[in-house]
Amino acid sequence: MDNVRRDRILLLDRVNSTRLFVIFMGVLAGLTGMVHGLYETFQGNTPTGGYVIASFGVFTIIHNYLLTGIAAMIVGLSLALWAIGFIHKKNGPIVFLILAILLFFVGGGVAIVFFTPFAWGASTRIDKPLAWWRKALPENVRKLLARSWPVIFIIGSLCLSIGIGIWLFLTPPGPSYKDPVLQQVCWIFIALGFLLQMLTIVSGFARDIERQESTAISRQH
Asked: How far are the Cα atoms of 141, 152, 211, 218 from residue 147, in angstroms, in the given order?
């Protein structure tokens, strides 16, 4: 049992916190765009009537619901897959940003404008020395944040997922009636999730710094 527990701890220590956060945000943005695209395709081969579709909460340069929906699903899937498999590569962050911008322009939802820039910014720090953060965070604060990262990440991710889930499935995009109570609950979860995800980025940096230092010490011995 002790060996199993030790192996789990070692596996957790090898996890790149920043990369895991970006993967989650990329997958969430991609799935959100795909669901938007699905609702848009339900409208059939009809004109959107303009660039902004207020009832769906989207902007699109393709003035056709069916084509917009198909494009949003393709780009949303591409964004999610890129975040999972390639975000840590040399050009991973810039491609991630391009896909996120493209998703916005093809009807993937305006909400990604508020979330993906932070995920992209964090992605540029994957496997980096984080020297500025090492100086900015006092050691005792850094260690506290590093220990708290799993809890902050999980709770923030759950809140954000619940909020977006309510938005997409209980008050779905489109001209249908929106329950005002559900909308308020939705925005409370999204706001709380967003704030916690910002703290997740900082605590993730702290944890990655601790991981880098631990790895350096292990190599010396």
From this structure: 10, 10, 11, 20
- Residue-level pLDDT, tens digit, the chain, 221 residues: 444 444 444 444 567 999 999 999 999 999 999 999 999 999 999 999 899 988 788 999 999 999 999 999 999 999 999 999 999 999 999 999 999 999 999 999 988 888 899 999 999 999 999 999 999 999 999 999 999 999 999 999 999 999 999 988 888 776 666 778 888 899 999 999 999 999 999 999 999 999 888 766 666 65
Dmax over CA atoms of the chain, in Å, equals 67
**Rounded-to-integer distance, Cα 160 and Cα 194, Å:** 7
Written as one string, the DSSP assignment of 54-77 is TTTTEEBSS--HHHHHHHHHHHHH
| 190, 163 Cβ separation under 8 angstroms | yes
H or E stretch including 137?
A: none
Question: Could you tell me which of 84, 58, 80 has the C-alpha nearest to residue 69?
Answer: 58
Chain centroid to CA 60: 21
Pairing outcome for strands 58-59 and 52-53: antiparallel
Instruction: Decide: pTM greater than 0.85.
Output: yes
* Domain span at 144: 2-220
How many structural domains are present in the chain? 1
